[in-house]
Write a structure and sequence with these properties.
374 residues, globular, disordered N terminus, binds zinc ion
């Protein structure tokens, strides 16, 4: 046997030696066939059924706007969401994501974000569909079609997806290994749907009654309604403030909490002085007294926002339109007319964009619904 024969038939790396060239040949052919099969599995699919796992302006973020070259003459801005393929409808086990760990199986938010970043497939939706089929939300099932190599969403279904339903339940009580520091490192954006890193304290009777009355009123107007935050502990409030700082910038903290207190909060965060931040946070929000809720605003158009603000006031609530900086022509307290600043996307396009985290904060009278009728 010559030295040349000893190299074997493998990759040429290492010391692998095959004494059975025929078996090696068979193995190579099998491997090649496997690759062909896998490629066929990926490329033959032109229609998908998928679950949306990004969340514009919400707890899990990930929805972006992408400018895509559509033909020689120009580009189109698409809304891009992250999806996990769950099949073609007639063959749920036949899809590109089948071998990947489902991010919806995550035990906590950090793991979810990590799995999602490793496993995401993206689908995009032309803005023109916005008014017709609405914007896909996390947990929605979508139908998509591959056109010119771009996955486009053709239909949105609100039907239940068991892994998503289970995920939401799990996130309401994430497992212990989602330590607070790792949660923060993963980058909570702090709109804070119930069930972020902490369990919310129970809502006060005033909040429960107000929320229900507001839901009836707003959905009665034919508008969507979603509460994204209710009562908070001081620790949760500290987290919200930090999220504002990291995701919207120090100026947003100052504009929201005032020149003196807001600036002191910024200083405390910058110097990692949690004790001081805790003291400042403790008196900074009606969420701590169980007398405030936040509702989602990105699903309202510019013309719907004043209608919603007025509905809140009619029930005795005091709305505060956030973000204070960069999103609205009029923001904060006492807003009756406003629109999103020209060129700004509802809900933003990711962290540190203008309307990321936009919402309506509502202060609720502490005795709401408990006063005697006169
Ligand atoms: Zn709030």
């Amino acid at each position: 046997m010559t030295d040349r024969d000893k190299r074997g038939y493998g990759t040429g790396i290492g010391t692998e030696v095959h004494n059975d060239p025929e078996a090696h040949y068979r193995k190579t052919v099998e491997e090649r066939q496997e690759t062909i099969n896998r490629n066929r599995l990926y490329t033959d699919i032109t229609e998908c059924e998928a679950v949306v796992i990004s969340d514009r302006g919400g707890e899990y973020s990930g929805t972006t706007d992408r400018v895509i070259q559509t033909d020689q003459s120009g580009t189109t801005t698409y809304t891009s969401v992250i999806v996990r393929f769950i099949g073609p409808a007639n063959n749920p086990s036949f899809h590109p994501d089948q071998a990947k760990t489902d991010p919806l199986s995550a035990k906590n938010k950090e793991e979810f974000l990590q799995l999602r970043s490793l496993n995401s497939s993206r689908a995009v939706k032309e803005p023109i569909f916005g008014g017709l089929i609405g914007e896909p939300e996390i947990g929605n099932i979508v139908r998509c079609v591959k056109r010119r190599n771009i996955w486009e969403i053709d239909g949105i279904y609100k039907r239940s997806h068991q892994p998503y339903d289970d995920f939401i339940k799990r996130m309401a009580n994430p497992s212990a290994e989602s330590g607070k520091s790792t949660f923060e490192a993963a980058g909570s954006n702090g709109v804070g749907a119930p069930g972020s890193s902490n369990n919310s304290p129970p809502s006060s009777p005033a909040v429960v009654k107000f929320e229900s009355a507001l839901q009836t009123k707003i959905t009665g107007l034919g508008l969507k309604f979603k509460v994204t935050d209710r009562s908070r502990t001081v620790e949760m409030q500290m987290e919200r403030i930090k999220n504002k700082f990291y995701n919207n910038g120090p100026q947003e903290v100052i504009s929201t909490y005032g020149k003196n207190r807001g600036s002191a909060m910024v200083k405390a965060i910058q110097s990692a002085d949690n004790e001081t931040l805790k003291k400042l946070a403790a008196k900074s929000s009606n969420h701590l007294k169980g007398a405030a809720i936040d509702i989602r605003s990105w699903h309202y158009s510019d013309s719907e926002i004043p209608i919603v603000l007025s509905a809140i006031r009619e029930l005795g609530g005091d709305p505060l339109l956030e973000n204070i900086e960069g999103c609205w022509t009029n923001s904060g307290k006492g807003v009756t007319t406003t629109q999103r600043i020209s060129g700004v996307k509802a809900g933003g396009s990711g962290k540190n964009t203008a309307c990321h985290n936009e919402h309506i904060h509502i202060d609720i009278p502490e005795d709401y619904g408990t006063k005697l009728e006169s």
